[in-house]
Amino acid sequence: MSYKVHATDLEIVDALQASPRATWASVGKALGLSEVTVARRWNRLHTLGLAWTSIALHPSQSYGVVVEIRCELDRLEHLLNQLNQHPQIFTVGQTTGEYNLFCIIGSTNVNGVIHTIHERLPDLTKTSQVKFSIFWQITGGVDWRQGILPAGDESHLRVHSEGHTTRRFPPLSKKDRRLFLALARDARKPLADLAAELSLSTEIVRRRLFQLQASNEITYRCDVARPSFDLPLGLFVLVRTPSLDSERIARDLGAWKETRFCAAVVSSTNIVWIAGLHDLPDVGTMIDRLTTTFPEIEVADQRVITRMTKIYGRLLDTTGKSRGCVPFDPWED
C-alpha cells in the first residue's frame, strides 16, 4: 500500500520522539490537533510499518561492541538473517568498502558483551575478516530527534514525562526482563495491558517504569522508515583521535542532528559514528564539517550504508519499513 507522508505525520513523530509515551491528548495539544486525529494518523503510520516505538537501555548504561565483517557475497544473505535474528544484536547494516557488514551488540555490562562475542555470535569462521570495537556508553543517536517542534510546544509534552530524581532505586536487572521485552515491541503499550501481560498490578508497573526512567536506566525511542521520513542515506565513519579526547569528541559529535549512533570505542580507531545524509554529494560536505569542527581528528574510514536490515530490534524491509521485531534482549543467555 502506497502512502505519502504528510507534514502532520512528521509533527506527530517528532512529538513522540520528544515523549514516546505521551498521551494522545497532550500530543494533540502540542500540535493544535484533536486527540482523535493524532491517534488515527499514528495508527495508520504504525500499521503501515512507517513508524514505531520501543524501549532502550539508557545511553549511559549501554555497553556493547560494534562488529565489522568482511563477508563473501554468496554468504551475505544467510549471515544477515542470522544477525537479524540474534536478540543481543540490536542493529544490522550493509555498507560499501572493505568491510561490507556491521552489527551492534548491546548489554548491561562488559561481561555480557564479552560472553556474547565468545559464546553467542553466529559462526563467523567462514567470513574473510572481523573487527570488534567495544564501547561502554552510547553518546548519540539512541533517542534522536527530527527537531521540528518549537520548544514552547514541547512543554505540553514534558508535563507528562516521568522526570528525574536524585533518589536511589534498584538498578535495571534481569528481574525487569519481561517488562523490558514487552515494551520493546511497543513502548506505548498502556499500563493496564502491561500489568495484565505480566500478571502484576498497574501500580507496580507504573512505579517500576518511573524508577527506571527517573534513574536513567532506560529510555524510550520513536523511530521511522528513514527513507520516507528521515535522511534516507547513512554514513559509517571511523575516527581516530588522541586517546584523552575521544570521549569529549564523541559526546559533541553525538549531539549533531544527523547522528544516528556514536560511541567512543576501544580499537585501532576510537570513535564509531553513523550519520544520516540527504544524498551522496553530502558525504564530502559532512566529512569536511567533521574535520573542520574537530581538527585534531583523523578520518580513518568512511562508508556509505547501502541497507539497514535491523534498527534497535526492528526488522526492516528494503524500503526501511518495519516488517517485524526481534526484541533487543540484553540478558539473553
Brief overview:
This is DNA-binding transcriptional regulator AsnC. The protein is an alpha+beta fold and 333 residues long.
Notable characteristics:
Alpha-Beta Plaits; DNA-binding; AsnC-type_HTH_dom; 8-stranded antiparallel barrel; sequence-specific DNA binding; Arc Repressor Mutant, subunit A; alpha+beta; 333 residues
Q: What's the structural blueprint in terms of helices and strands?
A:
Elements: H1 7-18, H2 24-31, H3 35-47, E1 51-57, E2 63-70, H4 73-84, E3 89-95, E4 101-107, H5 110-120, E5 129-135, H6 151-158, H7 177-185, H8 191-198, H9 202-214, E6 218-224, H10 226-229, E7 233-240, H11 246-254, E8 259-266, E9 271-277, H12 282-293, E10 298-311, E11 314-316, E12 322-325
Antiparallel strand pairs: 1-6, 2-4, 2-5, 3-4, 3-10, 5-8, 7-9, 7-10, 8-9, 10-11, 11-12
